[in-house]
Each structure stands twice: as structure tokens, then as C-alpha cells.
Amino acid sequence: MRVLVVEDEPQLLQGLASSLRNEGFAVDVAANGRDGLFAGSEYPIDLAVVDLGLPDLSGTELIGRWRAEGRTFPVLILTARGSWEDKVAGLELGADDYLVKPFHTQELIARIRALLRRSAGWAESKLRCGPYVLDTASKSLARDSQPIEITAFEYKVLEYLMMHAGRVVSKTELSEHLYEDDGDRDSNVLEVIIGRLRRKLDPDRELNPVETARGHGYRFRFERNQSTRD
Ligand code: CA
């Protein structure tokens, strides 16, 4: 998943970017409102974290401009303590959640994960599709309650596919949401990862959970389960 962080305090911006990358997100950064507007309008981001006090263009103006352009990704705002008017303005302009500075990075990450899940229509942290359960909190996978070991990168690919279970995800879409730099994208690498995931998810080749859609992309074949039980 790809996250944009718009924050003008350099240390906080770099700290957040590296924490989010460690958590497996692709991260775009902007240090002012104008660059943030460009990034949120031009890049296929899944969520934005926006400081409200920004140079050039305030955080509330930024959110208003994105929403006016029809950009619907979730937005989490960062506010200074005590500025409740800004918080309210941000929420009314279409922000989805907020955190008051100073905050714990782990809380920010938990809120980002919850917003991403909810925006894809998932109410809880476990993605359940057919016999597979992907736990987005512990980043673990199970099939019929039996754990399956996957690498951090395999997890990222599978999370995106299961988050959008039942829908065809093109190779371009998948790589744009997994990598922040065009130069890192390599569809051969993705094909290798998909091949490995298929062997791990379905060693006996009986379920075909990750379908190839006419050479253009992939579809996680099992749609989300209605039941909320394990
Ligand atoms: Ca600021």
C-alpha cells in the first residue's frame, strides 16, 4: 500500500517515512502544501497523512482541493494540541481521522491500517477469503487455521490482492501501489513473487487462489467471507 506524508518538519517527515517503510508501506513525501497537492493528484496513493500547519497551502486547503478534484483516498490529519477548530475544519473538508501532536508512531500506523482496511470495505483486521485468513496486525497468513510462512514482500503483494479480493488487479496497479519509485518496478520480479505465493498458498494446485486474468493482471479468486468467525 502506498502512503503520502505531507509534513513540513524535516525530522518528523523523515522519521515517519522511515517508520512507514519499515512497516512495509511504499512512501511518498512532501514538505509543503504545493508539493503535497501535486503528489496526491498525480500518484496512485492509497492514503495521505497531512499536517494541517503547512507552508504554501494549508492542510485544510490541500484536502479541500483534493476532494474537489474527486480524489477519495482516506486522509489522516496531524494537528497541534489545542487547535480543535482546525481539526473540525479538516474533518468537515473530508479528512477521515486525526492525531494530535506529539503522537506515538505505532498509533499512527495502527490508524493508517484501520483506514486502509475500512476504505476497502473491511471492518476488521483479519482478511478472510475462502480458507485463507491474512492477519494485517500480525502480518501472518493461515489456510484452514494452519499457518503459512511468507516473506515481507510476499505479504505486501498478497495483502493488496486480498484487500481487493474478487477484483482484477493489473500488474501496473499492483506495482504502483507497492513501489514508490518507477525505477524499482520490475514485472518479472512480481511474476516470481506471484509464483512463490501460489506454491505456498496452494501446494497441491487444487484451489488456484491467485488467478491470472488474461495476462493483464491477477485476481484473488476467493471473495471475502461473510462470517466473522475464525
Ligand atoms: Ca507544520
In short:
This protein is α/β, with parallel strands linked by helices. It has 8 helices and 12 strands.
Keywords:
22% strand, 5-stranded parallel β-sheet, binds calcium ion, alpha/beta, Rossmann fold, Arc Repressor Mutant, subunit A, 230 residues, 2 domains, 4-stranded antiparallel β-sheet, elongated
Structural features, described:
By secondary structure, the chain is an alpha/beta fold. The chain folds into 2 domains: 2-119, Rossmann fold (3-Layer(aba) Sandwich); 126-228, Winged helix-like DNA-binding domain superfamily/Winged helix DNA-binding domain (Arc Repressor Mutant, subunit A), CATH 1.10.10. The chain has 8 helices and 12 strands. It has helices at residues 10-22, 33-42, 59-68, 84-92, 105-119, 152-163, 171-178, 187-201, and strands at 2-6, 26-30, 47-51, 75-79, 97-100, 126-129, 132-135, 140-143, 146-148, 168-170, 210-213, 217-220. The chain has a 5-stranded parallel sheet, with helices on both faces. It has a 4-stranded antiparallel sheet with strand order 6-7-8-9, with helices on one face. A 3-stranded antiparallel sheet has the order 10-12-11. Strand 6 and strand 7 form a beta hairpin. Bound molecules: calcium ion (CA). Residues 8-9, 51, 53-54 line the site of calcium ion (CA).
How do the strands and helices of this protein lay out in sequence?
Layout: E1 2-6, H1 10-22, E2 26-30, H2 33-42, E3 47-51, H3 59-68, E4 75-79, H4 84-92, E5 97-100, H5 105-119, E6 126-129, E7 132-135, E8 140-143, E9 146-148, H6 152-163, E10 168-170, H7 171-178, H8 187-201, E11 210-213, E12 217-220
Parallel strand pairs: 1-2, 1-3, 3-4, 4-5
Antiparallel strand pairs: 6-7, 7-8, 8-9, 10-12, 11-12
The structure holds calcium ion (CA).
